[in-house]
Write a structure and sequence with these properties.
Structural class: mainly alpha
Number of strands: 0
Shape: globular
Distance between the termini: 10 Å
Number of helices: 4
Oligomer: single chain
Order of helices and strands: HHHH
Largest sheet: none
Low-confidence stretches: none
Radius of gyration: 12 Å
């Protein structure tokens, strides 16, 4: 794994929590190849995290999704 992806992973697990961030990464990976706009993907990821029952404040759910997107981009470089 790339250094940037590792750093994002560690940072996100500290801020958001390990289990919710792992869920966010999986959701973002699943949505990555869907024929949707970025905003639609973000909204779907946030909704999915809520469906899974993660009781995170709204800003933390959004942060988890954004960090998962950054992680995926860094990992694919």
């Amino acid at each position: 794994m790339k250094v940037g992806a590792i750093a994002i992973n560690l940072f996100a697990k500290q801020l958001v929590g390990g289990v919710p961030f792992e869920a966010a990464k999986g959701i973002v990976q699943d949505l990555n190849d869907k024929d949707m706009t970025g905003e639609q993907k973000r909204a779907a990821a946030v909704a999915r995290l809520h469906e899974l029952g993660y009781a995170l404040a709204g800003f933390l759910v959004n942060l988890a999704v954004e960090l998962a997107v950054a992680w995926l981009k860094e990992r694919s470089k």
